[in-house]
Fold this protein.
Amino acid sequence: MKKILMLGGSAQQIVAIETAKRLGYYTVVCDYLTDNPGQYVCDKFYLVSTTDKEAVLEVAKAENIDGVIAYASDPAAPTAAYVAQKLGLPTNPYSAVDILCNKDKFRAFLAENGFDCPDAKSYTCEADALADKENFDYPIIMKPVDSSGSKGVTILKDSAGYEDAVKFAFSFSRAKKIIAEKFIVNKYSTNIGGDIFINDGKVIIWGLMNCFRGHSPNPLVPGGEVFPAKLTDEEMQKAKDTLQNMVTKLGLVSGCVNVELMLDNDGRVYLIDIGPRAGGNMIPIQLSAIFGVDIVEMSVLAAMGEKLDVKPEIVIPYCAHYVLHSDRDGIYRGIEFAEEIEGNIFRKALYKNDGDTVERFDNAAKALGIIFLRFDSEKEMYDKMDRMNEYIKVVLD
């Protein structure tokens, strides 16, 4: 039986573990959290941090694994590529994954390869960052170079709050490195996000959607994705060309890649964040429903070096997911869904049980769950997504 090493055992990663087992693979999971739910689903568990490359490499050698995957995990993605490359297993180049997982390296890559990108400056020392307070052309955005889910991110319209933004960004950086970059004025009210899937160096699934952030206490935190993205045909083609150009120049070979991009008023496409892994908030589940394929299965097979034979086509033309959350702390007692929205929901993934602690939704890690919805028209989709607060009640003590 072939073995697959899976980096991370969170609630969102269980679907990948279960898929790998269904495909007949022996599943080995590494996670540093003692209470991760994945350990109870996999065949073998190691209490090892997924960011400790050498420790994970030793696990991979001991288990004689055949493939490695960091499903829906930015921090673990470089480790997966490092271990796979060391052992001669299927992977995207470690150098490319390292670039994508570090925002300062990614900005440098974009500039060096002729992509549109904002002016940016990185810092490893808090004092150096603070000294530049008056040297920016505001507005700017301050963020860690190595975080995801909008953790540690602040938009500054002027220098007010600069010191707090610097400290906040450093607090979420594992590498203790942050980046400040010019804030780009978006042509549209939302960014374009979602996942693409690469096979033999070519993008075969374009899961580009409008990012939905309207109901979160923190407007930077993703609150859902709406398909299809609202772009003109010309803009969509330019976005696709830009992403394929990036894939080619980085030498990416296969697998799911999470993307976030935006267009300015001059029609320039800016690649904001690219994660060399499946998107969080169960984006692959949504896209699997839209395109009539199993993207989780495709991700596992790609990590194992298996040949993919898929023919994606749009079977749900109007589809969205919504992140369930609370705007305050409390004790979880359940979630009530109005009849008007219940008929649109085709799948629910709830993370909390009665009596669990709930925290205010100021970063993606504090989600209560995900719901997936289908609609009969674009108008119905946007009308209802804009009013989700009226349809969903989180019950707390």
